[in-house]
Amino acid sequence: WSPADALPVCLTSPTVAILGSGDFSRSLALRLVASGVRVVVGSRCVNRIPSGLFPDAVELRNQEGAVSQAVCLVFMAVFPEHYCSLLGLQSALAGKVLVDVSNGAEMNIHGPSNAERLAELFPDSLVVKGFNTVSTWELQTGAHDGSRQVMICSNSTEGKKKVVQLARQMGFHPVDMGGLSAAREIEVAPLRLFPSWSGPVVVTFLLFLFFYGYGFLRGILLPFLAQGGHNAFYRLALDLVNESLPAVALVTLALVYFPGLFAAWLQLWRGTKYQRFPSWLDNWLQRRKQLGLLSFLCAALHGVYSLCLPLRRITLHSVSLKVPHKSSEPWDELGVWRSDLYLSCGVLGLGVLSLLAITSLPTVGNTLNWREFTFVQSGLGYIALTLSIMHTLFFGWDFAFHIEAYPFYMPPSYLLAVVVPCIVLVCRCFLLLPCIFTRLTRIRRGWESKLSQLCIDSKLRSIPQF
Ligand code: NAP
């Protein structure tokens, strides 16, 4: 079954030509036909195209025949290296809109983009860049699945208008990226590998390495060397991972709220919101969602690992479990309080974190107004952070005050993990003090201190006037 079977071809719609009969051409033709557009495919050798490759509604012609049938739109579904081989069609393509669907070959190529080179080769045509960010699979599934955005740019308003209209007819969301100079950006877009995730993933990974390495040194390697063969290396696969994950989750969650506080303190110090933040802070602010999701991932993994640990013990001691034995340990009420509070805070913290993760999904986030979104992401976020800190502190209980907690002068890793989150909470509490809160609110509503105005005036005076 193909989408083309579902819809009849609208015989009155202007014919669109596609040059090239490869993978992209086939998927594009399918989608166009399914959207009610008449399509003619131009190939160097029509006889080579196997029957049934294109829907019956698609006309197959040689390149000249296809271009002459196109009313105004021609898709260039050939690789940019082969644009020169189409120079013979220059006069036939004059005045028509050429849609360049090509992707860049590499990320860092200098010089003109494929679309700009096409515009140089065909100066009498209107070149529009677009559809390259859509894969053949997305073209075939179209409006039902996959990304629906189509980035478009051109120096011709008329050409862009026609492509935008067609993209809408095909069920896509066209995004106007401006003039043809934006083509380079659009061409390399499909080559990028999670650009907004790389920083947060590296930070999370480094934090994990740090806590895992620290735990290995403190709990396994140094005792092994000092006590002459005390072997605890079995802890590497499960225990130590489970010890490191909550620490990473906690610090990463604190890193979500740290840049917001930093920005607030910067605005208070500057006395204005009209000065740009440094670019590193800007970047950090834009990566908060990714950091939050990674924190949620680590916390969820910690939950699963914690459930696995008793399983391991049961497997190991299955034989001894078969023999019922009476516990000789006395009832430790304080210990029960400790473990119950610690578990309860952990479960609640994970629950609130899940809510935050769900609301960060565009489909859910879009249903909230700005106030609701801020309440969830900021209000509930701080609740999650507080619960996670309490979970860690209840876990540590009074152990941190005992000298045995510092073998080789190394504090336990949960103590290290709560430092940044505690700083974040304290800074946040200071921001809520009425004198500070009122000033920050005024600044965010456009008020500026006299000092900041003087600074801006002197800066403006130092810029040469023409
Ligand atoms: P393809 O399967 O190799 O098809 C390219 C077609 O170009 C050939 O079938 C050939 O058709 C035609 N062609 C015209 N002149 C040619 C020449 N001198 N030498 C060789 N072939 C020539 O490639 P494709 O995957 O469809 O990609 C086509 C364009 O779409 C590329 O610029 C690519 O970057 C872009 N694109 C592809 C995808 C994708 O998912 N495949 C996604 C986005 C963008 P005839 O033999 O019938 O002339």
TrEMBL record:
Transport found in the keyword field: yes
InterPro entries hit by this protein: Fe3_Rdtase_TM_dom (IPR013130), NAD(P)-bd_dom_sf (IPR036291), P5C_Rdtase_cat_N (IPR028939), STEAP_metalloreductase (IPR051267)
Catalytic activity field: 2 Fe(2+) + NADP(+) + H(+) = 2 Fe(3+) + NADPH; 2 Cu(+) + NADP(+) + H(+) = 2 Cu(2+) + NADPH
Compartments reported by the entry: Endosome membrane
Membrane topology: Multi-pass membrane protein
Family: Belongs to the STEAP family.
PANTHER family for this protein: DUDULIN-RELATED, METALLOREDUCTASE STEAP3
Name recorded for this polypeptide: Metalloreductase STEAP3-like
Gene designation: steap3
